[in-house]
Amino acid sequence: MLSIKNLTKIYGGKNKAVDDISLDIEQGEFIAFIGTSGSGKTTALRMINRMIEPTSGSIEIDGKDVMQMNPVELRRSIGYVIQQIGLLPHLTIKENIVLVPKLLKWSEERKDKKARELINLVDLPESYLDRYPNELSGGQQQRIGVIRALAAEQDIILMDEPFGALDPITRDTLQDLVKVLQKKLGKTFIFVTHDMDEAIKLADRIAILSNGQLIQFDTPDEILRNPANQFVRDFIGENRLIQDRPNMRTVEDAMIKPISVTADKSLSEVISIMRERRVDTIFVTRNDGTLLGYLDIEDINEGYRKGKDLVDIMHRDLFKIQIHDKLQDSVRTILKRNLRNIPVVDENNILLGLITRSNLVDIVYDSIWGETPAGVDEA
Amino acid sequence: MSEFFSNYGFELLQKTWEHFYISAIALLIGVVIAVPLGMLLARTNKLGNWILTVAGVLQTIPTLAVLALMIPLFGIGKIPAIIALSMYILLPILNNTIIGVRNTDPNAKEAALSMGMTRLQLMSQVELPLASPLILSGIRLASVYVISWATIASYIGAGGLGDFIFNGLNLYDPVMIIVGTVAVTVLALLTDKILGLVERYAVPKGINISR
């Protein structure tokens, strides 16, 4: 759907920022442009919505040459997220979200509906719609930055180092969120990054750029297995090449069956289930399996004494991982956050499994001693 | 003193009003020219700085000289006075507009442009509101200047409270001078106060909130 042919940008007559890049991107793909600074990745991205005009070559969206389109209309049809977020401080969150719909002259009701729908999508309360950007944290602001790029139902979203300015934990959360959003909405995302971990975690295909040239354009697996040349190998880092082999597995391979109860159970029933299964934490789901929260033994003790209901005492904010996430990424997050029990869910938030610290330890042992005979021989 | 007010009370009110509307019209013309001009000039590096320098030089010409220079061009009366005064206050407004627009967050502008705002929409919906605190304070400053300078405009027959002061000088009547001066000062302070309130309500809410 997005076809880039022989794209070149020359500054000052001879300085090639982007040098003859050609690539085809399918509808619904998550693409990363990665490279060191000065590799031309941002220039390439910004030529797609004509914030920078190409020197030569063509970009076609669904067969239409962008150079033939009105640049203002083109930009309204493509979402854009920048590292510095760039919310307009004098507008409320709602006005910020529906900036492009307003330019497209949507009706008030339609804008209102869209703003509500989107803010729910990124787990922020609707009351935030009336606040101003400066009242939100950086991570919250960038959530708004992301949904602002989706508000006019754009099919293509461009992101220029969207998480670069956030702290590691916020960045992790936002990466997960964007990945889930992208899957759910089926839109084409193209993002620029210099962080290989981020590219591997998010992208369906990665375009590696160096000095304006496209060095390799392939899936993360393929790039890790068959780096095109020494540059790519250096860029990925030898460390990751070795480390990555046992870790190409997904969360699904490592998870165990979780213990859960439905939300209509009484506390005494919950206690007997927990005693029987010998666990100190239990997940709470709806009847259809949708994850609602969790309870640990101390909460139950206290709630039981005070005669409260299960729904009143359960913790609703919990960190969860997606079933198709790479195990490597999840392990990093779990260790960073010092979590003990992490629920595994699918796109619809249905509880499917559980990762615990102890089964992570098993995996680490497996990868060190379980599969090594061949590796030891080679060494 | 009370004798003065019974003799000149009506004239004082009349001259105050005259003074006020000469200043207000001059201010209005100054704003209408300087704000859009400043927003355009803010984009240009060299031209903007060059115009600011020229405006700065113009500012150093004594008010009296500017008013005198108006006589051969526009004759005497209110119109040349208003023209001279509005030229005079271009600088503080222009200066603040250019600085205000240049200091707006480049990321907000980048985001707005890349989402498909036209140049005109960028100016009216992003740059103007974001620069509004500085623009408004420039206008407020200019309003105080213009009221004090309008006193001198009486010299070329524009009327206003300057008449009291000049007549007082001619007639050696200190009461007349003092009444004229106090009236100008009160007018200037009141205007400043009122524009201060306007500033507080006109600046977009989100800009004042900082974490």
Could you characterize the architecture of this molecule?
The complex is a heterodimer of chains A (379) and B (211). Chain A has 379 residues and is an alpha/beta fold. Chain A folds into 2 domains: 2-241, P-loop containing nucleotide triphosphate hydrolases (Rossmann fold); 252-366, Roll (CBS-domain). Chain A is 41% helix and 23% strand. Chain A is built from 18 helices and 16 strands. Chain A has helices spanning 41-48, 71-76, 93-97, 99-103, 108-121, 138-148, 168-185, 196-202, 220-225, 230-236, 238-244, 251-254, 267-277, 297-306, 310-313, 327-337, 357-370, 373-378, and strands at 2-11, 15-25, 30-34, 56-61, 64-65, 78-82, 156-160, 188-193, 205-210, 213-218, 260-262, 281-285, 291-296, 321-322, 341-345, 351-356. In chain A, the strands form 4 sheets. In chain A, strands 6-7-8-3-9-10 form a 6-stranded mixed beta sheet, sandwiched between helices. Chain A has a 4-stranded antiparallel beta sheet with strand order 2-1-4-5, with helices on one face. In chain A, helix 6 runs parallel beside helix 7. The two termini of chain A are 46 Å apart. In chain A, 36% of the residues are buried. Residues 372-379 of chain A have low confidence and may be disordered. Chain B has a single domain (2-204), classed as MetI-like fold (Orthogonal Bundle). Chain B has helices at 2-41, 46-60, 63-74, 78-102, 106-114, 119-150, 162-171, 174-202, 205-208. Chain B is mainly alpha-helical and 211 residues long. Classes of the chains: A alpha/beta (379), B mainly alpha (211). The interface between A and B is medium-sized, with 31 and 23 residues. Chain A: It is a peripheral membrane protein. Chain A: Residues 2-236 form the ABC transporter domain. Chain A: It catalyses: a quaternary ammonium(out) + ATP + H2O = a quaternary ammonium(in) + ADP + phosphate + H(+). Chain A: It comes from Phocicoccus schoeneichii. Chain A: Belongs to the ABC transporter superfamily. Chain B: It comes from Phocicoccus schoeneichii.
